[in-house]
Specification:
Number of domains: 2
Number of helices: 10
Distance between the termini: 21 Å
Number of strands: 24
Helix content: 25-40%
Strand content: 25-35%
Bound molecules: zinc ion
Largest sheet: 7 strands, mixed
CATH architecture of the largest domain: Alpha-Beta Barrel
CATH topology of the largest domain: TIM Barrel
């Protein structure tokens, strides 16, 4: 057993205390110091005034450290998992892009191989499929060549190949067949999320009735108010605010969404309906220099500056290079500014990186420091610098 001492962030409060882990699980969490259990622990790690939080969970991430999950090797998976662990991510959902089926199925095979191996990095809690059933008009950086219609035949094949590992699927609900797929995913316990979509608010309401529960990267790759013959037609952004049945993802890198929109999102949805995500591409972990958008061989060179990847002409973003420590810092400094203070502010920022994403994608033993939950912990100091990241009881990063 291992004992962690520090300022524990748990269930909406912060207290000096200790967490004891036993193998991959949390054995106990106690307020104050309980020296009587010291003898039971092989190791006691005293973090003093630093915070011990539930392990950060990133439900939307493509890459980091120069690698993308679709690069197709075990080394790339491990590089990404290690890079993000060094910034606080304990658990991640490797996220695909629209690609040929054989590449997607190779990704599933690789996922299984790596997830069951021993490596130093964030652990994987299932795959997030971003496409291929999305709208060409909102494809963003995705390759249009690989967009598909959700036919029974196709998604049966994908669901079979990805049995037990697909946790989330981002789909445009206006594409023919998508409503039926929403019901199917719901019945299989897979989170159906709306994204890369031009659906109007009526279609979004239909989608909610058909099992869709989230909006992928809120504001990015989605419709907003348009006008037809003078009449306003609300889109997905407005649906996100109106429907309680839709939770939202926020790329809280401080670039994709300005402070005021982050505040509006928090004010309207509340912490239980907002998951902070990195949506990071391979450039994550670098704050300057060059990176590649898309495939290493045929992708496009782009530049990293101002904390974000930009197209060479600097007219558009090429993706986020964010990490979860930055999400936490921005949620605290930008999103929650003016709404909460002190411990409540930090607890709420942590909640949107732990309990909320866990509950939205059905990770029932993660997101909290509770006895019998998975021993996932992120320890950070007053400057949001990560000191250690623990996943399933194992320290996979130590500063
Ligand atoms: Zn993405």
């Amino acid at each position: 057993m291992i004992k962690y001492l520090g300022r524990i962030i748990s269930e909406g409060e912060i207290f000096d205390g200790e967490v004891v882990t036993d193998g991959g699980k949390i054995a106990s969490v106690t307020k104050g110091r309980n020296a009587s259990t010291d003898a039971l622990c092989n190791t006691i790690k005293d973090f003093g005034g630093a915070y011990v939080a539930p392990g950060f969970i990133d439900i939307h991430v493509h890459g980091g450290g120069g690698s993308d999950f679709l690069d197709g090797t075990k080394a790339d998976f491990v590089t990404i998992a290690a890079l993000h662990a060094s910034h606080g991510t304990a658990v991640m959902l490797p996220t695909s892009l629209c690609c040929p089926d054989d590449e997607l199925f190779a990704l599933f095979d690789l996922y299984r191989e790596v997830a069951n191996s021993d490596y130093d990095g964030a652990s994987f809690a299932g795959i997030h499929l971003e496409g291929p059933y999305i709208a060409a008009s909102q494809k963003g950086a995705q390759d249009e060549t690989y967009l598909k219609k959700p036919t029974h035949e196709h998604y049966d094949k994908v669901l079979k190949a990805g049995k037990g590992i697909i946790r989330r699927w981002t789909i445009a609900p206006e594409v023919e067949g998508a409503m039926e797929l929403g019901k199917r995913l719901k019945s299989e316990g897979i989170c159906a999320s709306i994204g890369h979509s031009d659906a109007d608010i009526t279609t979004a309401g239909e989608a909610v009735k058909n099992g869709y529960t989230m909006l992928t990267h809120f504001y990015s790759g989605m419709s907003t108010i348009s006008r037809k013959n003078g009449f306003r037609i609300p889109g997905l952004v407005e649906a996100g605010y109106l429907y309680d049945g839709l939770a939202v993802e926020a790329i809280c890198d401080g670039c994709h969404l300005p402070k005021e929109l982050l505040q509006l999102i928090y004010k309207s949805k509340g912490a239980s309906k907002v998951a902070l995500i990195t949506d990071a591409m391979r450039g994550a972990g670098s704050l300057s220099g060059e990176t590649i958008l898309g495939s290493r061989t045929s992708g496009q060179r782009c530049i990293i500056e101002d904390g974000v990847a930009k197209m060479p002409d600097r007219q558009a973003f090429a993706g986020s290079v964010c990490t979860t420590d930055r999400l936490l810092k921005n949620a605290y400094n930008l999103m929650l500014d003016g709404y909460l203070e002190g411990d409540a502010r930090l607890c709420t920022a942590v909640q949107m990186l732990t309990a909320t994403p866990a509950s939205l994608v059905g990770l029932t033993s993660k997101g909290h420091i509770r006895a019998s939950y998975d021993a996932d912990l992120t320890v950070f100091d007053n400057n949001f610098t990560v000191l250690t990241t623990v996943t399933r009881g194992k320290a996979v990063y130590t500063k």
